[in-house]
Amino acid sequence: MNQPIRRIATLTCLMFLALLVSVTMIQFVRAPELNADARNSRTIYEEYGRERGPIIVADQPVVTSEPVDNLYNFLRTYQQGELYAHSTGYFSVAFNSITGVERYENSVLGGSSQSLALQRLKDLITGNAQRGGGVELTLDPDVQQAAVDALNGQRGSIVVLEPDTGRILAMVSIPSYDPNLLATHDAEAARANYDALVADETQPLINRAIGGDLYAPGSVFKVVTATAMLENGYQPNDLIDAPTEYTPPGTTHAINNPGELACGDGSGQATLLQSLRQSCNTPFAIAAVDLGEDTVREQAEAFGFGQSLSIPMTVTPSQFPDTATQAELAQSAFGQFDVRVTPMQMAMVASAIANDGSLMKPYLVDRTLSADLGVLSVTNPEEYSVAMSENTAQLMTDMMVDVVANGTGYRAQIQGVEVAGKTGTAEISTTIPPHAWFIGFAPADNPEVAIAVVVENGGYQGFGTDGGSLAAPMAQSVMLAALSD
Amino acid sequence: MTAAPRAASPGRLPEFLLTVIAVLIGVGAYALVNLGAEGSLPGNFVIISAGALGVALTAHLLIRWAAPYADPVILPSALALNGLGIAVIDRLDIAKNTSHASSQAVFTLLGLTVAVLTVVVLRDHRILRRFTYTSLVIGALLLLLPLIPGLGREIYGARIWINIAGFSFQPAELAKIFLAVFFAGYLVVNRDNLALAGPKFLRLQLPQLRHLAPILLAWAVCIAVLIFQKDLGTSILFFGLFVSMLYVATDRLSWMIIGGLLALGGGFVAFQAFPHVTARFTVWLNAMDPDVYNAPFGSYQVVQSNFGMASGGLFGAGLGQGYPGIVPQANSDFIISSIGEELGMIGVFAVLSLYLVIVVRGLRSAAYVRDGFGKLLASGLSFVIALQVFVVVGGVTRLIPLTGLTLPLVALGGSSLLCNWIVIGLLLRVSNAAREPQIRSSEPLPPAWEYDGGGEPPHDLTPRSPSSPADRQETQAVQLP
């Protein structure tokens, strides 16, 4: 009977060999593929199980990982969640989703970044659990809070930049939401909260500052057209055509000035300065047709229109449309037709003028830190483009100072500080109230802040709104907060 | 048959040392689980460790006394598996907020007691031959118990449990042992008949038809068990047990081939006829398919267990540091994936190696033991351990379709643990007989040092003709009361 017993032994060994091969297939050969499968929640559990690094604003951690007694070990916790929601984003295990800085700086926060290799080695030797590094934002909490207060619950967005660096001092999108609602480990609650936020008509999850439905800019776009005019031989005090009504070639549709008023003294001509101060439409329409579509577009692109930008979140490119007719080009010149912008883009326009024509690349992440808060990297300011000559920038500054000092933007005045700005009222249709805009910077001679404000559909003012009465005072209070630091 | 070992080394010192190592493995795993998952040692750690060491060494000493020549590797291997199993179950208790580890520990104590009792009470395994047909009756009754209304319970779709006074028991586990005893007793008597040549078919020497009847009957019984209890795994085990013992008894490969074909045929019929078997095949073949994954009774479990093993990789997440709790039934049917996740491929290989050690040592005892009954019993029980491990790990790793079986000695389950320890006890007993020095009464007793410490006997594994003198001894063994 020993022969068959030996054969049974051989068979047993073969069976076990097959098992070893099968186990090797799963744990070694196919492991990368299985680990990458979206249904393998361990990947995200591991990120939670690791102590994720903090997101820091002005030396205060605003997002932390709190130890909890469950599968994930740590609960991502958002202090002042609503204030920073659109910058920080959220880290949700319930639906395996990461947004905002949480997502774009995930390699540092989650600890997998190459820059953290040394720390990982140290943790391995000392036996510490792997930890993520910290991310320090450029936001200024006072300015951020002032922007939220200024909007006062009205749907819209405020972006504040430091013109000579591109640092984002404030980026607010209202309505906001509490990321803790989505970060909760209670999957059912997270799902319900998420569904409620998605179903909310006011779309709180959308970051209006950089990625919402783009806005019609209205008259604030005249700053772009005016820059193109100055760059192409116009002077602020030259008299240009500024009729009360202008019908572009190839159409019967007349363009009027706001309120169908005469521009300047009613002679049919006005200076560029006067046109901007009063926010006339016709002189810009005529000038755009005169300059041609390409010239205006190139100027817009120099400001960043149609260009890719990440702050590190991706900023939806603003659009200067292809205009099929001169009528469309004329409309576009003062921000109507299909011109669509993000508040970030308009803050960049203001910032480029403030910085002598040099547009600095906006950025939100100031520094990345190791888990021991040693500095891993510092973001160096970077020029994004040269939007105009220094001379043009100076002339634009002077004109925009005039808009605030003597024109539609007077409500943005700050005592003792020279403020430059431009208002906008972007008409949408006869049934939907217009958006109220203001862009500007201060102090005009040595700019510290550039700002863009948009309030959707006139906010509480509804149809009676305009940029000067609604957006300009908001810009004033936010700039005041920024300058008083 | 084989020659008797010339000078057996009892190997008690190696067993002592290996037992200590086995306890250290279990206790160490328990410590790591708690350090990894909770960051601290459990409060009762010292008491538990001392208790485990005391119990294991007591078992070692009793076996040393009752079966001094028993294989020294089997007990420590089983202890290591059992200890590791408790640690992993404790790990899952922490993950899922349950408390199964303590009951598993109690059953381990009981199991070890039963194993020792088996060795102590059963002074000679050949006594079991007297109970050949009694075993058949008991085995069959045990197998059918779950079908009795009121007594049997259906869990996860399989009716393989009985409930007595609040305790659940899987009688098939015990039936496995009784049927092994019956098969061994029956086959050792009828092996010549079964080995008789019958008609030839496709160059395959078939047995005579009337001798084919028992295997057909066994096959039919297994299918019946499958049908009524929806228990694929147990029917595979019984069938494998029977065919392997038949093969050992007759040395006729045709039995294996016929058995294999019948098993495939039965599997195919089951695949066609029973939706739950069809579902298992679908899961096996298309596990990653999202539809199969999301379907009720779909591949979620298997896929999640594969994810766990994959995330463990070569070295594992470390005990207490993975997420084994995600896998449903992680402490019973899928415990190998918990081990794979936290101890890695190396850990799984180690566990499989321990099983292989037990199985090969069992088969070696079968080869060396001098009576046919012992050979059949030991080889049958050893093979059934191997088959069970193969079916479980093969099912989890999708080598074969998944069947509901648990990993012997490691997985959660009192009845399974008790019965597997009885099997270990029986293997120890047979191995003692295999390694006992054969002393002819005509020769004077050699001094102890001549066969003590002389190392393992040389293992002569060359085939022998059936007419070798050892066979005559076996004939004598048949005549024992």
What can you see in these coordinates?
The complex is a heterodimer of chains A (485) and B (481). Chain A has 485 residues and is of the alpha+beta class. Chain A has helices spanning 2-29, 31-36, 42-49, 81-88, 100-104, 106-109, 117-126, 141-151, 180-183, 187-199, 222-231, 272-278, 282-291, 293-303, 326-333, 343-354, 390-406, 467-483, and strands at 55-57, 60-67, 74-78, 91-92, 97-98, 134-137, 156-161, 168-174, 239-241, 245-246, 255-256, 269-271, 309-310, 314-315, 358-360, 365-369, 375-378, 383-386, 420-426, 435-442, 449-455. Chain A has three domains: 3-35; 39-137 and 176-194, Penicillin-binding protein 2a (Domain 2); 218-484, DD-peptidase/beta-lactamase superfamily (Beta-lactamase, 3-Layer(aba) Sandwich). Chain A has a six-stranded mixed sheet with strand order 3-2-1-6-16-17. Chain A has a five-stranded antiparallel sheet with strand order 8-7-21-20-19, with helices on both faces. In chain A, helix 11 crosses helix 17 and helix 12 crosses helix 17. The N and C termini of chain A lie far apart (95 Å). Chain B has 481 residues and is mostly helical. Helices cover 66% and strands 5% of the residues of chain B. Chain B contains 17 helices and five strands. Chain B is globular, with a radius of gyration of 23 Å. Mean pLDDT of chain B is 84; it is low at 1-8 and 446-481. The chains are: A alpha+beta (485), B mainly alpha (481). At the A-B interface, helix 1, helix 2 and helix 3 of A face helix 8, helix 12, helix 13 and helix 14 of B. Chain A: Residues 156-479 form the Penicillin-binding protein transpeptidase domain. Chain A: Residues 52-135 form the Penicillin binding protein A dimerisation domain.
